[in-house]
Write a structure and sequence with these properties.
The structure holds two protein chains of two kinds.
Chain A: E1 5-7, E2 10-13, E3 19-24, E4 31-38, E5 42-50, E6 53-57, E7 64-68, E8 74-78, E9 87-94, E10 105-106, E11 110-114
Parallel strand pairs in A: 2-11
Antiparallel strand pairs in A: 1-3, 3-8, 4-5, 4-9, 5-6, 7-8, 9-10, 9-11
Chain B: E1 9-13, E2 18-23, E3 31-38, E4 45-50, E5 55-56, E6 61-64, E7 70-75, E8 84-92, E9 104-109
Parallel strand pairs in B: 1-9
Antiparallel strand pairs in B: 2-7, 3-4, 3-8, 5-6, 6-7, 8-9
Classes of the chains: A mainly beta, B mainly beta.
Amino acid sequence: KAGVTQTPRYLIKTRGQQVTLSCSPISGHRSVSWYQQTPGQGLQFLFEYFSETQRNKGNFPGRFSGRQFSNSRSEMNVSTLELGDSALYLCASSLAWSVAYNEQFFGPGTRLTVL
Amino acid sequence: DAKTTQPTSMDCAEGRAANLPCNHSTISGNEYVYWYRQIHSQGPQYIIHGLKNNETNEMASLIITEDRKSSTLILPHATLRDTAVYYCIVNGAGANNLFFGTGTRLTVIP
């Protein structure tokens, strides 16, 4: 079974631009979560989507948004990029939202550099 | 806010058991304890989880105290490939908004 895939793997943008990152979950997984990892703040939860609906949202500004498609693939968008948005963006998928526990499978991440 | 407290770093000799402690004194009755690890430059990897009872799988064992205020992850025979940051996470059932905290950097020494 193929793992979680994220594209692109590396990205360089300049301040003020916008960026879209893509995540394809493991086949059959309906929940997709996004995380940001920086040296200063560590791994921080951005948002989670299940059946095309945002279920949870972390403490990030409105410049960070996402969506999920009917095939469970997800995209996240960051508008008006700032230097501090440079980070590793990780996507994780899991089978469902309402089971007693949830093992999340993480992708390799997209390394975003904002210049 | 952090729900868990872990040592910043630990060393372990190759082939020996690695015991990683975690304090979660404010854990609620319906919250699970999860362990993930992140090997350098990779996405986090699920290791094990538990609610009340001790758990074991092919990767590790999880020992949860009777009052559930602390737990220990045990890697029975640490290898160099186990060098990673280990995260202890407390979360509600079915919740996917994991709070990772700072974790424990485990270094396995040859």
